[in-house]
Structure formats: structure tokens, C-alpha cells
Amino acid sequence: MPPAELEHLDVVIVGAGLSGIGAAYYLQREHPRRSYAILEARAASGGTWDLFRYPGVRSDSDLHTFGYEFRPWRDERSIADGPAILAYLRETAAEHGIDRAVRYHHRVVAVRWSTPQARWRVEIERADTGERTALTCAWLFCAGGYYRYDEGYTPAFEGVEGFRGTVVHPQAWPEDLDYAGKRVVIIGSGATAVTILPAMAGTAAHVTMLQRTPSYILPAPSRDALAARLRRLLGPERAYRAVRRLNIARQRAIWRFCQRHPHTARRLIRWVNTKQLPEGYPVDEHFNPPYHPWDQRLCLVPDGDLFRALRKGTASVVTGRIAGFTETGVRLESGEELPADVVVTATGLNVQAFGGVAISVDGTPVSVHDTIAYKGVMLSGVPNLAFAIGYTNSSWTLKVGLLCEYFCRLLAHMDAHGYDVCRPEPADPAMPTRPLLDFGAGYIQRALDRLPRQGDRAPWLTSMSYHSDVKLLRHGRIADPELHFEARRATVPA
């Protein structure tokens, strides 16, 4: 089909999850005359919050900062479960008519930029029928996050094929899994593992969290008493804004304290853990990570539910390395065997930049790893493409909201000056670079060769500071010597 016959949109948003719904809101608010669609590979909206169905699935950030700035979180729980978050996302989309712009079963497989036409050709595979279709757009906004939705990460375990029980990854949790009265071993120590343990402990015979390396784990109240009082005094809108500002400041203060005083932070966390655990518990064996706080994310447990399960004796933690599976459980290198009927491999995610979409510019394939992120929102040498990746040290949505605001400001700048092409290019091709995400988590370290990089100076640094990003993305100048604009066709006024 010739390009002239293809449907053309001003903006295509890839992904109907937290970031995609947010991007659509800001776009239609700031540029109501621009046409757009959200292409979603799956059959439902919500992204992560529709995909994950494992027991206890919840946020690991408070919803006053994890929620959208433009729509208050009204639930009493500030750390909410997956179904509540999914309902919030879908209600937001319906309230603003965003749900009508979502095209389900539309998996983007390739995008091809044409400089003469100043547009992208988007190749789509219908996930329900296998049909191939295409459309064109002036801008792409990639809002699919950074991990694969079709499979999680599971390392190779010797002897797993001979295990007589059930092995399940949290990302593919079966609806009919019956673990009542059964012995469960959860392999892993991250946020997913510490969420699943207390959720299963009340039903299973016993749950063991088997960790190779401990994580920092802290209790946090699931309900924010101050937020509840402020809602009564100020109403939901004003109270949400006030609590959001307070929690942003609190998150930043905790992170900065851990970065500046890691040894003191470690002692404080250990003291809290000791108070939560049974008397005489081997804290230094199971709750003493070899890295500093916030080198990886801290795991929050609402109302101390994990510690409560350990105190009751319905759950336990074992630290050791796996030698392999037996017919009846998991064997450690120490020789100990953990009997199990169900093994949960909470071993992490598979990172996949831009949903695995093949990107090319004027016929030349783009190697994402060879690109440098411009202000954490665009890629060097790639025109008219924006992407959303949130914070690793704070609530994801805080960053995404600012990126969406910047994207809309960029479009307005281009309209005002008659531009239709925007391409970041480093002034110094020899600028030193480093990984996009300076983060020690295993799933990030395994994927560094598949992610963009960042530079050693602005505007090529990827900030992890909300306050810095407010200055840069919300209030900073759009015009920049390293951001090149062109006028190749008549623009559509916003």
C-alpha cells in the first residue's frame, strides 16, 4: 500500500499502561487539535498492573507520588494493591476519554523514519489475527517501559526438569494455582519476593524465601494518617497536592541521607529490622546486604507484613546458593535441601528497550546501545522520537509526568517556529558515556548492552532528581545548540 493511502496521525503512543495514559492526558490537554492513538499489544490497558496477577501484587511507592499529579489518589491506602491501582488507571483513562484512543492487539514491530517525508512509518502486527498493517505519524512516544511483557527472567537451574512439584514465575502466574497447605519456596529477595511471601503465608503450609543476597527491607504504614486528616480539613484536591509535595521531599531526603551516610543508614535499617524480627533472630545472616542502601531499591513492606509472617512462624528466610533441584525440593550448595511442592522463581525481569521494536532512520538500523539519551527523553541521531522511563530511586510517575510536560512544550516550540523535525546531536562526538541507569539491580546490569547510554554533561545526563528535573524539563529552555530543528513540510497548528 503506498504511503499516501496510510492513515496518518500526529502522535503515536506505544503502550497503554501508566506512562501511555499519562502521555495521552498531557497531549490532549496541551494540544487538543493533534490527532493521536495509543497502540497496545495486549488485550487490555494498565500495562504492568494488568499483567501481574501474583498474590499480594502492590506498589512499592506511595500512591500520592506514584499517582498522577493531575488526578488525586482518594483511597485510604497509600501503598495500594494491584487491583486498586489498575482501577485508578482505567478510571483516569475513561474520565478523560483516553480509553477511546486505545487500539488493542496492536503490536508495533518496526518503525522507519523518512527524512524527506518527515514522518515515521509504523509497522504493526495484530496480536489477535497475525495481520500486518501500517500507519504513519509525525512523532512517536514510546511508553512501554523497559522490560519484556511476554517472559520474565529465570536462570538455568540444574535438575529442574525432574522436580515433581510446580514451578511458576510471578510474571506468568496461573489463575488456578492451588498452594493451600503446600510447602512453598520463593527464590529471590527483591520487591516481588517480599510481596509474595506474606500473601502466601496465610494459606500455604509454610513459605521459605530463599535468597542468594539479602535486600534492605523496611516496614511502612499502608495508610497515611496525615493524608486522611488533610482530606477532612482541605478536601481531596488540596490535600493530595500537599501530601504529594511532602512525600516527594521525604523520598528525596531519605535517598540523599543514604547516599551521604551509607554506614549510618545501614545501622538504622538494621535496628528497625531487629525490632521487627523475633528475639535472637540472625539479622546479620539474612538482613545484611553487601551493598549500601539505595545502590538498589529499598523494599517496603506495608504494615511490616513480611516481618509479621516471620514472627508467626508461617514463613522463614534462608540465605544460600542453589546447587540444583531435586524431585522434592531445592538443594543448596551447603548440602541442605528445602522441601517444596511449589517453587516461585521471583528472579527478576528481562529488560527490553523500546519493546524490542526495530528502529531505522532513512534506511539505516539504529543500535539503541550506541545512542545517547538527551535529557532522558530523546535519543541522539533519532528524530521525532520521545520515550518515558521513570525514576529508579523514587516513584516512577514523578519522572514520567515531567517528561510528558517537556514533550508538550517541545511540540509547542516547534509549532511556534514552523519546525516539524527535531533531532538531538551531541556537539562533542567523543563525549565520555556511561550506562543510562546507574543502578545495581541484576535485571539492569544484565541488559546494559541493550539500553541507551548517557553522557557526562548536560543535556546528556539522565537525572534521577525530581527537583533538578522540574528546573530542566518543566521550566528549562527548549532551544538548545544540541537540539537541531528543521522545517520540511507545513505544520499543523496545535
TrEMBL record:
Family note: Belongs to the FAD-binding monooxygenase family.
InterPro entries: FAD-binding_MO, FAD/NAD-bd_sf, Flavin_mOase-like
UniProt keyword Flavoprotein, yes or no: yes
Classification via SUPFAM superfamilies: FAD/NAD(P)-binding domain (SSF51905)
Cofactor dependence: FAD
PANTHER family associated with the record: MONOOXYGENASE, PUTATIVE (AFU_ORTHOLOGUE AFUA_8G02570)-RELATED
Species this chain originates from: Dactylosporangium salmoneum
Regions that span the bilayer: 6-27
UniProtKB keywords: FAD, Flavoprotein, Membrane, Monooxygenase, Oxidoreductase, Transmembrane, Transmembrane helix
Name of the protein in question: NAD(P)/FAD-dependent oxidoreductase
Pfam families referenced in this protein's UniProt entry, alphabetically: FMO-like, NAD_binding_8
Organism lineage string: Bacteria, Bacillati, Actinomycetota, Actinomycetes, Micromonosporales
